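Sync notes, pocket subgroup
Present: LS, DG
LS reminded everyone that the earlier model was apo-only. Rerun requested with pyridoxal-5'-phosphate included. Inputs:
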Amino acid sequence: MPLHQKTACRKQWGLSQRSGQNIYYKLDCQQPSGSFKIRGIGHYAEQLKAQGVLSLVIASGGNAGLAVAYAAQALQLKAKVVLPLSSSLFVEQLLLDLGAKVYRSGESWAEAQTLALELAQAPQATYIPPFDHPMLWEGHSSLVEELAEQLPQAPDLILLSVGGGGLFKGVMQGLAAHDWPTKVLCLETEGTASLHQSLAAGRQIELAKIEGIASSLGAKKIAQAAWEAAQSPQVYSRVLPDEQALWGVKQLLSETGHLTEPACGLVRAALVQDWPEIQAAKHIVAIICGGRTMPIEQLSL
Ligand SMILES: *Cc1c(COP(=O)(O)O)cnc(C)c1O
């Protein structure tokens, strides 16, 4: 039994009716850790357990940290999660609730990661990267396998958000495995646009800093494998402002009953843009990636 769940894929009737398209929500907000990340991290954690690993280490105050904590308790492993000193108590409590051991170190993620890499030197411990690992991509590709069972035909377009590009790379692998000609629209907020800016520059760039509210998309540099996958003519990249992402969170809350993060609301907001790649599609899947790390107070921002 994998650690992730098979999630529902539901037609969004109101949006579909208004646009004359078939718009489906792939509800990965239903995953037990609150986001799609358990697909890849659960898959990797199972392999590691089979190899005799006893503790999983990560530096993440986001959904990757939550997925590691969830996977560890499900597999009876230890989870060690390092947060920078500035991380919120809200996230720390979510991690503690899942039984993780929480460490705090440094002003920045780079410093927290240094401690995580040190902790991972202990015998039978392994550092889990949040998005840049083939096991993660293989796990994430299960999402496309489910779509193949759930949909009457291959979608014309899949919408997803991009941080470091792990989800994107996994979806591209899944599409290739099914030989689907589906186009993929990658979404980022203005302050997290590492893929979009790299595509504009024609080379992988590193953002000087991450800005705005979509913290789950805050990778300064896209993974090499995701960058390569993004060179396909099947792939589009667009950017929206934070206000749109927050608007999307509210829409999703009222449409699905799930509170998600701006990293996910962004995908909802993209559905109503007048971009040609959206207008040209008839069957559309929006990956509702979820996310549990936004305190509800931020909704009124
Ligand atoms: C991690 C995450 C993303 C981005 O995934 P990447 O694999 O880093 O591109 C998007 N949405 C949510 C909710 C996430 O947790």
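DG: The first strand starts at residue 9 and ends at 11.
LS: The radius of gyration is 18 Å.
Action: DG to write up.
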